[in-house]
Amino acid sequence: MPKVVDHDARRREIADAVLRLVVREGVEAVSLRKVAAASGMAMGTTQHYFTDREEMLTFALATMNERRSARVRAAVAALGERPDERRLLRTIITEVLPLTEESRFEAAVGAAYYIRALGDPETRALLSAGPRQVIDLLRGLLTGAAARGRLAAGVDPAQEARFIWALLEPAPVMGGYWDAEEAVALADYQLDRIFTAAD
To answer: Residue 199: pLDDT above 60?
Structure first.
């Protein structure tokens, strides 16, 4: 009986190898040959799933982003039905900040891709979609909170969404400027500032 191959699982294995290489050696070091070796697959197998390096890099980043989104969705779902907006925002923030081994790995991958984006418009376009989506989500949550009278007077949901997105920047934690507890304390300070005391 012929062996059944899970092609999606194979592509994810290759994506994981790409991400490990990106963290260890940088985006520019990724090649089909290195990825084949890192994934334990033959070069021909790797080429069967990805025609070139750019396709692998794009798929690997998308795979990581999908996993992070799934993790955030699961954390939000664990809050139960209709959690208050402050608690919801705090959950999103703490899932994205580099507070765990997994989120630190994601931050390292992101940093490597951002370095590449400095000189590569295609990578820059690929990376810019994520922040826009997050800011739109945050703005929607804050606009809903404002409509229910849950935001402090004078709070602009659009500006606060951008500010909260800026809090998600991993460099201060990854660079050791402040630790995970300080990053969470800063997020709590910001949330306390924008939400009414009733929250």
So the answer is: no
- The 8-class DSSP code of residue 78 comes to T
CB-based contacts of 91, cutoff 8 Å, min separation 6: 72, 75, 76, 79, 83
| Amino acid identity for residue 119 in this structure | G
CATH number among 1.10.357.10, 3.40.50.12500, 3.40.1080.10, 2.40.10.10, domain 83-199: 1.10.357.10
- pLDDT (tens digit per residue) in 185-196: 999 999 999 998
DSSP state of 97: S
Q: Identify which of 35, 23, 28, 21 has the alpha carbon closest to the alpha carbon of residue 118.
A: 28
End-to-end CA distance of the chain: 61
Residue 95 burial (CB count, 10 A): 20
Judge whether residue 147 has pLDDT over 50: yes
